[in-house]
Every structure is written in structure tokens, then in C-alpha cells.
């Protein structure tokens, strides 16, 4: 049964889920201005659908434009494929053109969401919904067989600085200023701790005008092999969001690498990452407190995240089987 997965961006969730359901992944990218981008990508998408003639089309929302295009093809019966949307939080509640979401939902056969808290919103719009968290990624080149040893991925050493790896894209929902203030607090309380912040720095854009704290390293953009190497070497992963009910990608990556986490305290995140993680209210004082607590409880948290990984992999197979069964109906 031919299936395709359509997305207008590069994201690990697309790659993991497409592989898990046996769909051919089409990552369609264009770097021109917005109008040209939408025109080019809509044409490419239409051509892929016409050429592949799939039985199932999976698509990512956002993009709202991609989702609207595919729902329109379904509505006009220009495709007979089952249409399955993978709705991220910004797809369920987009910042603009929210009026399109009910129509997209009603013209899709199934909507996937990352956690159960989002399911009632989709059902209320007349859609059929399945909760499916991100698959635990298989990090390329990550050999975790020795991870239970004292030295290995995520293992902190007293002879080296305790490294916090802040997975950051410098997006508007990340409390970056609070993290930098937390680093200042940590510098005074635990000088053995350092923090690496990923992504291309946008200090002025986020409102930071002071010098960068001395215990902070701005890594810039990291290619995937280097990102994974740094992730595996970290003592703790920090990944934060101010979005309600949002489960961050970096948490799944931390579980794969068997590295303890400090995450934003929302209910879906607390329920899913129930071991190996501490939770913060995103204020500087709370972030600093939880990171220092992660330093003090590191061995316990690392044992917990190893256990959590086994549990989540088993749960993942059950959820994927439900999705595959629906796709084959």
C-alpha cells in the first residue's frame, strides 16, 4: 500500500514517523520570499501527489498552507488517498487563519496529535484523533550498549565540568532570557557547572543586552553529527517552552541518549517524561534550582531515564500499531 509523508520543513519527528509507518518522506524546501515559496511548494506538492498516486497521505501541520492544499485536493476528489494530518500545537491553534482548522480537520480522515490533552479540541471540530508522541529517535552513530557504565553517554564525571546542554532554536516560545539569568545564578552557586546553548544566537531579538555569562557557551548551529555528539556527552539536557501542553523534541532526544532532563512543567510533559526528568516553571530562579538539583541527583535521574526509555519504546510500538491498523482500513 503506497504511502507518502509530506512536509515543508526538516524535523526529526517527520523522519522518525515516516520511517515507522513505511511512508516515503518528501521534505520540500524553498528559500525564496514567502509568496514565491508558497507557490513553488504548492506546485511541487501537487506534482508529488499526482505522480505517486498514494493510498495514504500523511502531512505535517504546520504548514497551514500545505494542510489546506491537501484538504482541498481531498474535498475536490482530486485524490482518493486517506488523508492523515500530524498536527503540532501550532497546527491545532495557529497564530493566524485559525478559521481554516475545522475545515482541514473535517476533510482529513485522521488527525495525529502529540498528546492526549489536544485530542478533545480535534474531536470537538468533528475529527477523528489519535495521540502519538514522537518516536524515540535512533541517534546515528550512538552506541548505547555501554551506557550503564560509569563512563559513557550522559555520565557526569567529577573531574570535568557538569555540562548542561540547552537545546534551543531561539524561538519566541523559549524563555531564553530566563535561562541566561539562571546561568548567572548557577555561576555563583555551582561554579563546576557550565551551559551550552545551541542554535544561531539572537541575543538582541530576545531582549538580552548584558554580557553573556562566563559559564555559557553559544555553540551556534550544530550539524546533526556534532549535535548528537554533544548531546551524548552532556550531563543534563535543558529544553523549555512557554506553549501550553507542548512536548519538546529535545526531551525525546535526551531519552534516546539516556541523559537526564530539566523540562517545562506542563501536564502532558510531566505525564510522559515521568522518570529521569525535573520540571521548572520557566523562571530564572526555578530553572537554576532544578539544574542544581539535577547535578545533585544525577546518578538517580540517569538510572530513571534508562528505565523510562525501555517503557516508552514499548508504548511506542502499541501506538504505531494503532496508526498502521487505521491506515490499512
Quick recap of the structure?
The chain is an alpha/beta fold. It has helices at 12-21, 34-52, 64-75, 89-92, 100-106, 119-124, 176-189, 203-206, 224-233, 249-257, 267-272, 284-296, 298-327, and strands spanning 3-7, 24-27, 56-61, 82-87, 110-113, 129-131, 162-166, 193-198, 216-220, 236-239, 261-264, 277-280.
Describe the structure.
The chain has 329 residues and is an alpha/beta fold. It folds into 2 domains: 130 residues, Rossmann fold; 150 residues, Glycogen Phosphorylase B (Rossmann fold, 3-Layer(aba) Sandwich). The chain is 44% helix and 17% strand. The chain contains 13 helices and 12 strands. The chain has a 6-stranded parallel sheet with strand order 2-1-3-4-5-6, with helices on both faces. Strands 9-8-7-10-11-12 form a 6-stranded parallel sheet, with helices on both faces. The longest helix has 30 residues. It is globular and about 65 Å long. It starts with a strand and ends with a helix.
